[in-house]
Amino acid sequence: xxYEAGNRRRPKRxxxxxxxxxxxxVTMTLEDMLAEMNDIGARGLEILANSHxxxxxxxxxxxxxxxxxxxxxxxIVPAEYGHWVDSRLYEGRHLxxxxxxxxxxxxxxxxxxxxx
Length: 116
Fold this sequence. Notes:
Elements: E1 14-16, H1 30-40, E2 44-48, H2 49-52, H3 61-73, E3 77-82, H4 97-114
Parallel strand pairs: 1-2, 2-3
């Protein structure tokens, strides 16, 4: 670490949108949450794929364009894309390894898109 005067590294503040679980979609929009993050000086963002991405796993172009606008406008840095493979997605059977791999690939691509 570089501890020279003025170059000291400090922890950065971030927010998981999971902490807004009770408010999101009820009293707050995605924009409301990002604006509040900006107000408190938080830059790092964790988003939970199936909870915060409208239309997940296939968000609309309008949603993606709005995401890009909000990230830029509120100076937010996507830092964590929370996702998981729901191995019990289908009643009566577990996902195959190939199905799980396809879901992971899909989520990696979407996470990469959100971090433009």
